[in-house]
Amino acid sequence: MRTRKAGSFVLLDEAFKFLLGVNYWPRLYNVKMWKEWDEESLKKDIEKMKELGVRVVRIFLRDIDFADERGIPIEESLQKLQRFLDLLHEKNLQAFVTLLVGHMSGKNFPIPWTSFDSLYTPSSVEKTATFARKIAERLASHPALAGWILSNELSLVKRATTREDALRLLEAFTKTMKSVDPNHIVSSGDIPDSFMQETPNVRHLVDYVGPHLYLYDTDLVRLGYFYGAMLELFSNAGDLPVILEEFGFSTLQFSEESHARFVEEILYTSLAHEASGAFIWCFSDFTEESGEPYDWRPLELGFGLLKKDGSEKLAADSYRNFSHVVERIEKLGLHSKYKRLSSTFVVYPFYLFRDYEFIWYKESLGFWESIKPHLMSYSLLSASSVPSRMVYELDLKKILKSAKLVVLPSVVATLASTWRNLLEYVELGGTLYSSVIRGAGAFKALHDAPTHLWNELFGVENVLEAGSMGRKIFGVVKLKFVRKFGNLSEGDELLLKVPESIYTFKAQSTDSDVIALDDEGEPVIFFSRRGRGKTILSLIPIEVILQAQENAQWHEGTIFYEQLAFVSEVERRYASKDPRVELQVYTGEKDDLLIVINHSNENVETSITSATRIVEAQVIGGKARLLPESKREMRAVFPPKSGSIIRVVKT
Q1: Bridge partners (DSSP) listed for residue 582
Q2: Are 109 and 101 spatial neighbours (Cβ–Cβ below 8 Å)?
Q3: How far is C-alpha 135 from the chain's CA centre?
Q4: Region of residue 614 (phi > 0: left; psi between -120 and 50: alpha; otherwise: beta)
Q5: Are strands 277-280 and 243-247 parallel, antiparallel or unpaired?
Q6: For the whole prediction, is pTM greater than 0.85?
Q7: 51, 79, 218, 462: which is deepest, by most CB within 10 A?
Q8: Strand residue runs (E) in 556-613
């Protein structure tokens, strides 16, 4: 992990401080902030931010208020921006300045020096760079400056036609800012499926990746887990620091109580998954309900920690309490004295961030559907208390020396070179698990094969009939284990509810052990030894099935994934008995910090087992209530959608 500095904050090194932030427009005049300047109301807001525990503020330069048609800043607006930074500095707060703000809250505002269709042309890029440079020249030395963000969701103004166009703009911006101000961090500020947020393609340009996540799900446990999985995907096994640059919901959509629980859950999730910070959208509700765009987007009026009259919502207390917990664990030495260790990696596919001829899966499915099986796989590992990370397929080699278990979930196609590298990895002692799929629902990938090493790697022969769609799975599929697999015994069964038609392969063993049969007696899970290592192949794409279920079968999924950890000899230092309760472990020399998140919307009483003797356990943050423990087990009660930190003194 490379160290980056944001003003006085340092990302992920011994001086780590969590960038606990808010996105900010004033509640009284929101997008008109720079025109209808009201210093007294700004001071009151900043005072309240300080009281809530805010450390950094993301602010927005609405460009029609800030520049002329040449991209030259307006002096009066620059003076107001500098004064706002002065006010932040008086309270020891810092700001991320977002420069290219054509989009905000469901409306695209004009950019004076360019049309939306011309955003990525050389002339427009040059004027954008001019605007950014002149802002940086004025403010680079300001003590309240934390960093620079290119845009607010520029792809919603106009998505670049090609990756090259998007990266040309991002590169011009970052080079310009670094030439003027090498001491502050930069990032893109775009939506998650933007070219400018693709970690493997922007890691040489930006200092952190900042996804904006507003996720929805029929399964609220899966929803919580997917936030952590998304942070891991953008981290790419530690390539770049990640800041959850936007998250939140409107209390015009959901109840205040659930909003408060959600804020707590996601803040703890961000901390657990090594994010360098999280900025909630947003500081306060807005009052100007008849103005653009709020007249036609009323939900945008209600995202705040504060109500429009300035009083607190319940989420404000969640935020404040979390800020106190963060201060406490930073003093203990999170990321310096305590490290999060992992030897398990979920691989996401080669076609996600790079284009290949006749590889159309991402275009057909879209970004979100393309990654869901991988998010589900990572979530199952987390729900099984298996410490893990995610890595892009083209970066696979960088993790193979440290990996005990590599997971390729619900594979449509994988590079031939990847399979060859994995065969070498297995022969040297690693464990590989992969499941495969031909199609699900309307999506079909019939003119493809997931691997060319069916026999060499997995010890099976593909016996699917030529020209067929594949074996169809629908309704309920039963997996009957016919050999011992980890802690599963011969005769044990798993029942999976398949909500949509899935097409998969048919195979028979050449020299592998058949581990499980389906309810038609067909072999569907195979185990092989190759060199010093092992492979497990499933013809049942468990991850696709569970991510498509309205309510995921967490118990069945984690039973199987726990066995993957067992056979690959991955250590689970601590394990939650309830898959709805996530456990991320930060290991110290004599004690450990456990960041525990209950993703359920119910009170959960469960036990946490330890691989070593527990000398003492205490809750040092959050709402968990510990019950009397034994030498190897703690019992605790976790409120709905809550986070806690437990310090465990070990032998």
Answers
A1: 597
A2: yes
A3: 31
A4: beta
A5: parallel
A6: yes
A7: 462
A8: 574-576, 581-587, 591-598, 604-610
- Does the pLDDT value for residue 15 go beyond 90? no
For residue 46, the SS3 value is: helix
Tens digits of residue pLDDT in 606-637: 999 999 999 999 999 999 999 877 888 999 99
Q: Which are the contacts of 120, defined by CB distance < 8 A and separation ≥ 6? A: 158, 160, 161, 165, 166, 168, 169
Average pLDDT of the residues in 562-576: 96
| Integer Cα distance of 568 and 94 in angstroms | 46
Amino acid at 267: L
Digit-coded pLDDT (tens) for 146-164: 999 999 999 999 999 999 9
Q: How far, CA to CA in Å, does 388 sit from each of 260, 344, 515, 535?
A: 28, 5, 25, 18
Determine the 3-state secondary structure of 541 from DSSP. Answer: coil
| CA nearest to 59, candidates 167, 142, 119, 179 | 142
- C-alpha to C-alpha distance for 393 and 66, rounded to whole angstroms: 42
User: Roughly how many angstroms between the first and final C-alpha of the chain, as a whole number?
Assistant: 30
Locate 136 and state its tokens. Answer: 């940086």
Q: Which is nearest to 109 in space by CA: 150, 64, 74?
A: 64
Query: CA geometry: angle at 290 spanning 286 and 295, to 5°?
Result: 90
Distance (Å, whole) CA 624 – CA 637: 6
The Cα 525–Cα 458 span in angstroms is 10
Q: Which residues make beta-bridge pairs with 303? A: none
Mean pLDDT of the residues in the chain: 94
